[in-house]
């Protein structure tokens, strides 16, 4: 069974803000956080969970990404967040820069885990699945969409 989300593909952009400062980076998985206004305008049916798609910083290259939407049950957040991990090794941080994302598919619901290790393992699996999905020929034309900056 796969979940059908009518609002996909969903395109949005915003400035990268400081997140919870929990050191996602130290876990090998930095996540660029969107401001509240962007999170608040998400369509209802983009339920909390893990998504994949393409992302771009300013007018840079378009990379594969995974995104976590929700309250991070593992951390018991009280504020809903939208965190994007771009599947690329960057030399520098890009706080304050514009992040464009095309959210294309849904991977799984948000989960709680009994250890940080399990969370990290789940994220690694998400990244592998996302890479596989995002190589599919039918998704490549999205990168030419006028939504992305040139
Ligand atoms: P924060 O709690 O402030 O979000 P993180 O540890 O999640 O801190 O790090 C996120 C920051 O790391 C991003 O805002 C961005 O500037 C930088 N960064 C570097 N590489 C990446 C990447 N591959 N994906 C997402 N963010 C990255
Ligand atoms: N947090 C959760 O509490 N449960 C999850 O299932 C979960 N899945 C995630 C999947 C991906 C691909 C990413 C990038 C993050 C996920 N997170 C999840 C959010 C995670 O808790 C957050 O990025 C932390 O700040 C990591 O330290
Ligand atoms: Mg973050």
What does this protein structure show overall?
The protein has 150 residues and is an alpha+beta fold. The protein has one domain: Elongation Factor Tu (Ef-tu), domain 3 (Beta Barrel). 16% of the residues lie in helices and 29% in strands. The protein has 2 helices and 6 strands; from the N terminus they run ββαββββα. It has helices at 36-40, 116-134; strands spanning 10-15, 32-33, 49-57, 62-70, 81-86, 98-109. The chain has a 6-stranded antiparallel sheet. A hairpin with a 4-residue loop joins β3 and β4 (62-70). The chain is globular and about 40 Å long. The chain starts with 9 loop residues before the first strand and ends in a 16-residue tail after the last helix. The structure holds adenosine-5'-diphosphate, riboflavin and magnesium ion. Magnesium ion (MG) binds next to loops. Riboflavin (RBF) binds at residues 20, 22, 24, 27, 29, 31, 50, 66, 68, 72-75, 83, 85, 110-111, 122-123, 126.
């Amino acid at each position: 069974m796969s979940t059908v989300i009518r609002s996909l593909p969903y395109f949005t952009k915003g400035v990268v803000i400081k997140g919870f400062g929990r050191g996602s980076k130290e876990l090998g998985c930095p996540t660029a956080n969107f401001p509240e206004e962007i999170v608040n305008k998400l369509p209802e049916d983009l339920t909390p969970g893990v998504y994949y798609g393409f992302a771009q910083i300013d007018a840079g290259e378009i990379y594969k990404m995974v995104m976590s939407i929700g309250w991070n049950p593992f951390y018991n957040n009280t504020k809903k967040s939208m965190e994007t991990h771009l599947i690329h090794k960057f030399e520098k941080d890009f706080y304050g820069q514009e992040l464009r994302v095309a959210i294309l598919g849904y991977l799984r619901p948000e989960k709680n885990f009994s250890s940080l290790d399990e969370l990290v393992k789940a994220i690694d699996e998400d990244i592998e699945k996302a890479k596989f999905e995002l190589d599919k020929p039918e998704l490549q034309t999205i990168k030419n969409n006028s939504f992305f900056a040139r």
